[in-house]
Amino acid sequence: MGFRIKTRENVNFDTPQEMYKDNKKRKINGPLDYQSKMIDQYMEKDVINKKDIAIELPTGSGKTLIGLLIGEYRRRKNKEKVVYLCPNNQLVYQVVDRATNVYGIKVHGFTGSIRNYNPDSVSAYNRAETIAITNYSSLFNNNSFFSDADIILLDDAHSCENYIASVWSLEISRTKHVELYCSMVENLKDVLEETLYNRMVNNNPMAQDIYWCDKLPNVQFIGKANELSPIIEEYVQETNLWYSWEKIKHNLHACNMYLSWGGILIRPYIPPTLTHHPFEQAKQRIYMSATLGKSGELERITGVKNIKRLKMVAEWDKKSIGRRFFIFPNASFSHEMNMEVLLMIKKMTNRMLVLVQDDNRVKSLQKIFNDNTNSEVFSSRDIEKSTDEFVKSQDGVAILANRYDGIDLDGDKCNMLIIGDLPSATHLQEKFITSRMAASVLFNERIRTRIIQAIGRCTRSDVDYAAVCIFGNELENSLISPKKITHYHPELRAELDFGYEQSTNHDSIDSFLGLLKLFFERGPEWEEAEAQIINMRDEIIESNTLNIESKDFEKLRLSSAHEVEYQYALWKEDYEEALKQVDIIISILSGDTLKGYKGFWNYMGGYIANQIYKKGLDNYYEVSRSYFKEASNSTKSINWFNKILDRREVNITQHNDLGIVDVIERIELQIVRDGIKHSGNFERKAKEILELLKSDDGNDFERGHKELGTLLGYHSDNSNGQADPDPWWILNDKLCIVSEDKIYKEEIKKIPVKHVRQAITHENWIRDKIDILKRDAIIETIMITNADKIEEAASIHGKNIWYINRDEYVNWARKAIEAIRKLRRCFLESGDLLWRIEAEKILNEEQVSPLDYLEFIKKKRLSELIKNE
Length: 869
What we know:
Elements: H1 16-21, H2 33-43, H3 45-48, E1 52-56, H4 63-78, E2 82-86, H5 89-103, E3 107-110, H6 119-126, E4 131-135, H7 136-139, E5 151-154, H8 161-165, E6 170-173, H9 178-188, H10 194-201, H11 207-211, E7 213-216, H12 218-236, H13 241-248, E8 256-260, E9 263-267, H14 277-280, E10 284-289, H15 297-302, E11 308-309, E12 323-327, H16 338-347, E13 351-356, H17 359-372, E14 376-378, H18 388-392, E15 396-401, E16 416-419, H19 428-436, H20 444-455, E17 465-470, H21 473-480, H22 482-485, H23 490-503, H24 509-521, H25 524-542, H26 551-571, H27 575-588, H28 595-614, H29 620-634, H30 640-645, H31 660-674, H32 680-693, H33 698-711, E18 715-717, E19 726-732, E20 735-742, E21 750-751, H34 753-760, H35 762-769, E22 778-785, E23 789-790, H36 792-795, E24 801-805, H37 806-825, H38 833-845, H39 850-857, E25 866-867
Helix pairs in contact: 2-4, 9-12, 23-25, 26-27, 27-28, 28-29, 31-38, 32-33, 37-38
């Protein structure tokens, strides 16, 4: 046994490329030309010492090598401690494997608890003898081992928002934190509208209630903070919630509270990362991303206002890596056929990767494959440390939830990718701003980035190829609708256009999947298709429509720096500075498409001015009211903006646009679910509704009546109980229309006493059974029938029941369905404020708004019918 003799690392080099030439462990020739050009940009004098630098290269182009070379150069040259962050453990293992076995770069992986870190790895990192590869959560926590890192490399920075923001996000789940959730809802009861309270305590919610979210006005939130804090403090002990609560509990004035049936979220709008020592103290932070975007999303995600972006190289903004053939089953087949299509695709390929949005979907798909195939099914846990077992499988399917990045299946490891959901809003704040404030433009780039990441899982080099199957109308729309597709680079646009065109007008699944077979065979037929895709790409490039930066994105980018400044000023309770930044933000966000987001900032301005008023500056009360009024003018989706103005309730139901916002939001959901690019699902549904309404079978009529209500944006339901109401349409918690449908087979049938008496009881049934209605809700009872006479004895009971002739009702339904067609034709995306304005105009012009419907049904009372003589 002898002494350990340490050899000195060579530092006789001037660039990362020169350093790498002496690396004899590497199994690659070195950085490719475009990678070297990106490193050269980094080494320029005005860049290398910048605090924050962003590098953009598309998925599969080798960002990892560039980051590791820069990190290794700084570690060896300057003896700096370098940390390389990945979104999850699976990526940590992947980067460690690639660095060690391909690039020949010295790294150590760090996952799990600090106390379980390998002592040798800890020593090597502390002495700056190796690069530490770890996950975001290892740096962004209350007790990070990496608290003195000199260089922080943030891989997949576009997907780090939740990992970073979680440090300052108290996410209270209805199912995981039952008592805390219920206790908070009860404490908030006196400041919640009755509707919202009922929604949150309802154990049997409607589907729309589960989707719903809202924001507790900050003025009320701060007013309740002293009561809420002890409740939270008690329940978070010895739970994971404790860590985030510790970060925000003394700064609730700088946080927002979002409410939903499934949970409550308390967090600052932008994570104040520069208050987190391990992140703030680093000499340099390098953000690596597949797309940095043009709307300032990186700044909002990271809480850093000035990030130096390196220029894109090698025309990656125009061309793809590898080749993808997109197929869209729902362009030809109904959703009911999706599983049949999926199982037939599996028979055509040995391995298949399926990406969905949540664990419930994973479980249902696992069951389907286990019940109907002999395929080996892999979960996220199965492939966390390595994908080897999946790759070795000759009949395998990997089903992963919310993993739109981080899975690298290059070469022939997997050539079939299934994406089953839209990677859209990931938390309540994003959902609120997108759906309630109609400011989807803010998150368009973020959602697009998730989609680009997802579709690139199986094409990691120029020679890779994969078929990508897209299920679901919302995801389909995000890829191929005219407004969305123009934001993708030319080659991807060409792939999408080509694939969608090939996916339409198929009568059989065999015909549809025949194209997939031709793609996998890679024969002469596909060579012609390949040539067409390239021609389409070149035509798009030559059309000179590239790189035209959206005016909206430019405004959002300029705004982002001030939004970051606002958050730090608010965190420090510097309300005057925060309000100054709000005014700058509002001045930047001009234009109709940004009206919803501008409204959000007017609302925040009102809150800040209100805080200043409470500190004794009385003139700020009127300033606060002015901001709130502007916020109210920006949206009709949120009625509590109005209620902040004069501290009094506003009777919204008396407004002449009675409930129109309620139906528009639900119509929007229906359009997305039915599909935007093609109208087949909608037209089938519309045809069926009209056929059912014209049927002489009463049960069929009831079905058509119920489905029409759903199509028009009402909560529509029916009951099968004896003497129970026929379909009822709920507009909101203030109005319900309940029906007695009677389609008589006899030609001159008179409405008998028993049917009128039955209808009289429906109002009481609704008040007793339907929880979401307020106690003083208006309930209108109608009878839709093909009869035009009533028995003498029945007439007296029909004074409070409205009569509608079936033929007139069918005519009105035709008009209403045509209005929905018009709404569909001008629809582009969820959360589009301009569409919502146009939708209101169309519904009013076509006279099918909720107010118009009330006028239509209330023309004649049942008692006014011709009586039986």
